[in-house]
Amino acid sequence: MTSVVRAFRSEVLKFRRWSVLAGAGAMLGASTFIAYLTFHQIASGATGHEMTGLIAAFHTPEGLVAVIGQARSLIIAIALILVSANLAAEWTQGTLRNLLVRQPNRLAWLAGKMLAVVLFVLLSMLLTLAASSTLILILAPGQGVQTTAWTSAEGLRVFAEFLVNEALCLIGVSTLGMLIAVLTRSVASAVGIGLAYILVFEGIIAVVAPQVSQWFPGRVFNTIVGAAVPLVGPTPAQGYPAALLTGVLWIVGFVVVSALALPRQDIKA
Prior knowledge:
Oligomer: single chain
Largest sheet: none
Number of helices: 12
């Protein structure tokens, strides 16, 4: 446990790097902008088939979450990039060998590093959603939008449920990014393969074989959130309990495979 804590503390220091902070900044800025555009469209009376559900939910307890949740795909993509690039960079930059000199236990190093990186991703997500929510709540009175339902007990319950499920989703995406980084050992490959899998491959499978795709990790992690608020993601066809269990099994599987692969790799300078 001491080795894991030391690896964790060492990784936390790297959060000050501009490349890491830039990822969190991109998540915050882009997500807040998307939330603002969504709110502005609804408040200004925009119509359209794609807006029907959002407009219907706008004045309900789910209204705030429905607005800020429109940037979820972007948050997932940035989280995947942050984790896979951060981990794969240890191989690409040739720093892993030096790290293992100080911490020979590879699994302890991986556990400590992933704890730190996942913590950073979750904090970035919390800051992003807090900033988006605050902006919308500030703008709402000026547009004549009532926020009573959003801040009611039911509204707060919906928001809390959304946060918990979104955190589970990002933890799952982070472990997927970890596995890809460990197997590819290259920043370019890890980021490219990760995004291609989430955005392209699973999308194709969803069109060709939807009954099969619902069990794939990206879809499962996404539907966990959609079960709480359908407007921010697809609802799980297999039901929330089955989707949650499947998501946990995927996370465990990614961790186990990564833990089996890392000790068997040749580490070169």
